[in-house]
UniProtKB/TrEMBL annotation:
This is Ig-like domain-containing protein. Keywords: Disulfide bond, Glycoprotein, Immunoglobulin domain, Membrane, Signal, Transmembrane, Transmembrane helix. Its main location: membrane. PROSITE patterns: IG_LIKE. The keyword Glycoprotein applies. The keyword Cytoplasm does not apply. The chain crosses the membrane at residues 163-185. Signal peptide: none annotated. It is a single-pass type I membrane protein.
Length: 222
């Protein structure tokens, strides 16, 4: 497996890189779960156009269709109840709602951990908070992404939006890189733990040993 190859390569070159790696580990173990959901937290859309609301996730585990779970919900404000408009039951299932009719479509790709949706002919009444939540067992942590959608009737002046997009893109890019790095480190660490366990007591099934070495919160739910 390439994760363990990576690990061995790292182990042979100790010294400085080991120090950096352990600093990173200490930093990430406390703050990172193995499930990360990446969204654009604020989206502005022009009335009447189609808007894409993206949501992707990273996980140490390949998606198992029989255990995977996902929900998309909408709430007008924080005070309102969440209204589910899409879910996953062996496949993506849109739930018809009065608000969206058939304007909401799945636009992601499960093979790429992409759960994005589009809303066509977006209305002022579509403004609100969109949430995607993901469960990818045996990952014990449930992932959540929250997107605030605003609908405008006029685009802001082009110069401002260009700057905003440039700044947003570079911040977003860096954030994605940081998250990716942290997830890889976490996954490597997890696999190392597995190797240790399997060396000691040969050997339990992968899915079972996986979940047991947690420093992260979360309850066993298998
Ligand atoms: C939004 O767009 C629809 C159709 O494109 C139009 O009928 C409606 O007046 C627009 N609403 C506003 C507030 O501009
Ligand atoms: C939500 O409810 C609280 C009190 O119940 C209220 O103070 C607040 O203004 C409400 N927020 C919105 C956005 O309606
Ligand atoms: C989706 O919603 C259902 C029903 O409310 C709930 O039982 C399930 O845990 C939710 N799944 C996720 C991944 O949030």
């Amino acid at each position: 497996m390439n994760m363990s190859l990576l690990l061995r390569a790292r182990d042979t070159r100790q010294g400085a890189s080991a120090i950096i790696a352990s600093v990173l580990l200490v930093f990430t173990v406390s703050s990172v779960s193995s499930m990360e959901v990446v969204v654009t937290p604020l989206i502005n859309a022009l009335n009447g156009t189609m808007v894409k609301i993206s949501c992707t996730f990273t996980s140490c585990y390949k998606m198992d269709i029989s255990k995977f779970a996902m929900n998309w919900t909408y709430q007008e404000t924080k005070n309102d109840t969440e209204e589910m408009f899409m879910t996953f039951k062996n496949r993506i299932t849109p739930l018809r709602t009065d608000r969206f009719g058939d304007r909401v479509k799945f636009a992601g790709n499960l093979d790429k951990n992409d759960l994005s949706i589009t809303i066509s002919d977006v209305q002022l009444s579509d403004e609100g908070i969109y949430k995607c939540s993901v469960r990818n067992p045996p990952d014990r942590v449930e992932g959540h992404g929250s997107i605030q959608l605003s609908v405008v009737t006029e685009l802001p002046p082009p110069r401002d939006s260009t700057i905003a997009v440039a700044v947003g893109a570079s911040v977003g890019g860096m954030l994605a890189l940081v998250i990716l790095t942290m997830v890889i480190i976490k996954c490597v660490r997890r696999h190392k733990k597995q190797e240790l366990i399997s060396d000691e007591q040969k050997m339990e099934e992968e899915g079972k040993t996986d979940g047991d070495g947690g420093t992260e919160e979360g309850t066993k739910q298998i």
